[in-house]
């Protein structure tokens, strides 16, 4: 396996308690809001897409040992270094040593509110008709893929029911690899807890994922 | 690259010199990016201020309270949450495609992102630390009742639980049950009962008269 995500945690036996947190608590270190802002501002240059950014984060070797904003910072540096926008010795020096690369745009202070309010919708038009409709039984793709994907391991190779069609959306797997948006129909697929976790699963538990059409094949009903 | 903070074998939460080092490192990066003309430093301040003071769970609380008092809005929200929520001016980044799910006596909903930290920013703001943590992301889909217990929430045995794993760009907002004894309450007052956790499904709306 060449591509390994360290972020696919659903159903795994991860140690530690869940620590509830007051609503007003947003950051735990002074540098964290700055990492958030730098990430959003550099995202605003249009140099990469959100799926490429997630792919870099989930493959950071130290992922499990890093805090959330440490992951964001390390990924931001990687994304920029990969594009030679910033080189490691510049990060060390804390100043520009090489001329800048051209970016598509710069996010200016006056444009922030509008850019956030607009977001980046992922719905697209596609010519193909959806293969499935609500109520259809489907089996999800089984096994490992050698790239970023959004089908969690716990929901791989499982039989569930199509609950909702969300329209066609940018296909994360392709977009993360720089192959373009390649939009596909996106469905909510719901699984019975016992299908995912076996006979001991809590009764009445159902879990759903949002799955692109190529993750799915028809299952006997 | 020598900037991985985990080259060192100590814990970042406890070590103040390390906090200082991270702060310097982030400032240094900001200088480089500013010198290169990639970022407008004033934009950073606007971004930080936006998520510290403007976009947070009070937005979502307004959506929920309106759904509680206005049946037409509630129907619209359940049918087309993106449009209904946009009518209150909550739109955009990490909330481009919204779905609302409603708790009842029979059905409780809970939201997670097992793959990263997807969360409906326009209505809830930035996710709390636990939402992004390995314990929550690993357990929510397998043992939601155990997770709820860690939040001090216990549901009747016959309440079914539905967990929504946000694996694409659709973002989910839980509409908690309206507390009893609030029949003649105003929308504004009701919104104060709507906690962030109740809109993720790890909590319930506060009962009238209950404290924080």
TrEMBL record, chain A:
It catalyses: an aliphatic primary amide = an aliphatic nitrile + H2O. Residues 122-217 form the Nitrile hydratase beta subunit domain. It comes from the Bacteria. Residues 6-108 form the Nitrile hydratase beta subunit-like N-terminal domain. One of its GO terms (molecular function) is nitrile hydratase activity. Its EC number is 4.2.1.84. Transmembrane segments: none annotated. InterPro entries: CN_hydtase_beta-like_N, CN_hydtase_beta_C, CN_hydtase_beta_dom_C, Elect_transpt_acc-like_dom_sf, Nitrile_hydratase_bsu. Residues 1-24 are annotated as: Disordered. Keywords: Lyase. NHase catalyzes the hydration of various nitrile compounds to the corresponding amides. Belongs to the nitrile hydratase subunit beta family. This is Nitrile hydratase subunit beta.
TrEMBL record, chain B:
One of its GO terms (molecular function) is nitrile hydratase activity. It is an enzyme of class 4 (lyase). Gene3D superfamilies: Nitrile hydratase alpha /Thiocyanate hydrolase gamma (3.90.330.10). It catalyses: an aliphatic primary amide = an aliphatic nitrile + H2O. Its EC number is 4.2.1.84. Residues 22-202 form the Nitrile hydratase alpha/Thiocyanate hydrolase gamma domain. The keyword Amino-acid biosynthesis does not apply. Pfam families: NHase_alpha. Keywords: Lyase, Metal-binding. The keyword Lyase applies. Belongs to the nitrile hydratase subunit alpha family. This is nitrile hydratase.
């Amino acid at each position: 396996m060449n591509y390994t995500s360290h972020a696919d945690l659903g159903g795994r036996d991860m140690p530690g308690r869940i620590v509830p947190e007051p609503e007003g608590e947003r950051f735990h270190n002074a540098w964290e809001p700055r990492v958030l802002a730098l990430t959003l501002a550099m995202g605003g240059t249009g140099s990469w897409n959100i799926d490429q950014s997630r792919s870099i984060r989930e493959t950071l070797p130290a992922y499990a040992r890093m805090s959330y904003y440490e992951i964001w910072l390390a990924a931001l540096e990687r994304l920029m270094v990969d594009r030679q926008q910033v080189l490691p010795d510049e990060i060390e020096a804390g100043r520009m040593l090489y001329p800048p690369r051209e970016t598509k745009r710069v996010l200016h202070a006056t444009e922030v509110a509008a850019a956030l309010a607009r977001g980046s919708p992922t719905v697209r038009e596609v010519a193909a008709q959806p293969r499935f409709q609500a109520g259809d039984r489907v089996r999800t793709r089984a096994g490992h893929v050698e790239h970023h994907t959004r089908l969690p391991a716990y929901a791989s190779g499982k039989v569930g029911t199509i609950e909702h069609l969300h329209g066609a959306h940018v296909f994360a797997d392709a977009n993360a690899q720089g192959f373009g948006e390649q939009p596909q129909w996106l469905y909510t697929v719901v699984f019975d807890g016992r299908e995912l976790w076996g006979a001991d699963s809590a009764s009445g538990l159902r879990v759903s994922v949002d799955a692109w059409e190529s993750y799915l094949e028809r299952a006997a009903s | 690259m020598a900037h991985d903070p985990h080259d060192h074998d100590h814990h970042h939460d406890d070590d103040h010199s390390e906090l200082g080092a991270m702060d310097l490192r982030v400032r240094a990066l900001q200088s480089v990016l500013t010198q290169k003309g990639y970022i407008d430093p004033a934009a950073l301040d606007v971004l930080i201020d936006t998520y510290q003071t403007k976009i947070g769970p009070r937005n979502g609380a307004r959506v929920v309270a309106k759904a509680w008092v206005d049946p037409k809005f509630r129907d619209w929200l359940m049918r087309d949450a993106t449009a209904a929520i946009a009518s209150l001016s909550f739109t955009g980044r990490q909330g481009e495609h919204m779905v609302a799910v409603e708790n009842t006596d029979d059905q409780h909903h809970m939201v997670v992102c097992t793959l990263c930290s997807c969360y409906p920013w326009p209505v809830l703001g930035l996710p709390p630390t636990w939402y992004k943590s390995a314990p929550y992301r690993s357990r929510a889909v397998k043992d939601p009742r155990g997770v709820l217990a860690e939040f001090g929430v216990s549901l009747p045995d016959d309440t079914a639980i539905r967990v929504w794993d946000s694996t694409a760009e659709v973002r989910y907002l839980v509409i908690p049950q309206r507390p009893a004894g609030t029949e003649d309450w105003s929308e504004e007052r009701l919104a104060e009962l709507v906690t962030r956790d109740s809109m993720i499904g790890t909590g319930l709306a506060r009962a009238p008269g209950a404290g924080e």
